[in-house]
């Protein structure tokens, strides 16, 4: 069933986009304010970003502990905001019944923010911590350097992040400017509100009308046109960083660019990327839009080429390919793009749909106006002499009819009924125990690179990762697409081409410390130690490999097709390994880029205590954020949650701080655990309701089933829900004492040595 969409404008000028999608399990709101960092007074860089932060500190009606963030997180939802050059976005996703409560809090905090100076002081320190992290992030600094290629007086070249020195809180002029910015832009005619969910359009409209009417009417006077994007012909900063700038493009140029970038990222034979890969030049390619406003467009292609590549020739090949694309008929280019957009819409979450709607870029084919914008965009691009180009054939990952070849499912693969086939979302997990998984991973990542690129375009999740002595493959998405991707992936995994053993690995962007720790956590939990294996043919390690697998969400027809695809699984079926049991305190130092202290604390729990542990994590989430992020201002990366990792379930705490070391962070966490929690009247019910297939995202259900399989358990979601409802205050108190004594183990990952001898 296709989505039903409604557009309307309220009396105060606020624009509404409403989407009824019966397949969705959750509902989402995305509110876009058509003003951003470039609209703030140049005298106070960061003012728009600072204001975005202030909104989340609570209001008289909804104080911090009942504000939007705490409300959404308590329901297991998502919430965030983002300030861009000309827009500011606020968005959240919750169970459908909670949409009204979330939207009421969102609208109220934007209409009546609290500008108390002491609150501003605390939040400015958070902004300053973000600025420090931004200034130390190589990828962020590379992008900032790219923007220095535009005209000298264009705001893209300026500093807009904000810090302690650009936000003079005690300056009366600054305070007037802050409130004037709010009055000018946070009013109806400057706002687009999008709602998406399974609710009928009439219900969504009634809710949006009632709460959207709070915004003042204001005026919709246009802003002055930005200065020219370029003073001189654009020069790319390097041969592997290719910049493209445009002026005076027609409406829907962003949508046209999306199609062009989609064509550019297609690595199948016939295109530019395939030619680079065939020559042995290509390691990686990323293309993205950097800026768009008022007919101006700036986009970027970043290449990673091998040492033997000719960068100038690679650029000329791109220009030749652009010339070929220009010669193709717009409708011809449009056919595959329309299919991709349909598949992406089908796979999108409520939050994805609402955010795309609020940006005016829904997952849809180009209109006639969009095709005209594509012609204008292509005409404005450099072109070279003709090359050996052709459009690729139909994409197998978009097929809707299964192949006729069928076979029984292999022994060792378990079928899970956790996700009904009617959801049209399936996931396949395969996990091998084999020597030197990390070495094999490097080879197989190169072998799977082209397939992964195609899968990403077709809304298929394809991940390959290694931890300890294990290699894990996950493929999720439309069931038939998963089957076809699995068949191709297993062929590459079993017999990768010889050149993949020799090719240098692509340079991965440096992770901030806390993300590096999260990436290392599964390996620290893994009971198998990686063993050395000399480089050579892959057949030898596969001879001794043992695998286990789980298939979720497949109907009978797709199971038959999956059986044929899985005949190529290398190795032999095996049993899940025994899980590691923790006791005491264990410290793992992880060498991560960046100088800021970062710490993860994982407290695994045995299965009988996990319902109590989930409720404890639910009750701790708010206090941890309040103490560490708001009161102590330790940093911008602060979280606490319950997480299932490598078959282990437990409480996970994480902090990255510009100024607090690991010992100090651990001290604050220990103090919070010692202070305990109080079981609120509705906490159990609120958490229990999150554990049903109908309430969880499809990918979350699949993850639950896989983690239970690795833990050699078969719990039903309903059992977890029932167990949570039986937890009492004394159970929470007892578990807290066990945690403080590290009876079930503390596993700490940090980018520093252990602080004392109490850690193993």
UniProtKB/TrEMBL annotation:
Keywords in alphabetical order: Coiled coil, Hydrolase, Metal-binding
Enzyme Commission number: 3.4.24.-
Domain Peptidase M16 N-terminal positions: 19-155
Residue span(s) of domain Coenzyme PQQ synthesis protein F-like C-terminal lobe: 615-696
Pfam families linked to this entry: Peptidase_M16, Peptidase_M16_C, PqqF-like_C_4, PqqF_C_3
Domain Coenzyme PQQ synthesis protein F C-terminal lobe: 426-551
InterPro entries xref list: Pept_M16_N, Pept_M16_Zn_BS, Peptidase_M16, Peptidase_M16_C, PQQ_synth_PqqF, PqqF-like_C_4, PqqF_C_3
Domain of life: Bacteria
Keyword Repeat recorded: no
Domain Peptidase M16 C-terminal: start-end pairs: 177-328
Recorded coiled-coil stretches: 434-461
GO molecular function: hydrolase activity
PANTHER family the UniProt entry points to: INSULIN-DEGRADING ENZYME-RELATED (PTHR43690:SF18), NARDILYSIN (PTHR43690)
Entry similarity comment: Belongs to the peptidase M16 family.
Name by which UniProt lists this protein: Pyrroloquinoline quinone biosynthesis protein PqqF
Gene this chain is encoded by: pqqF
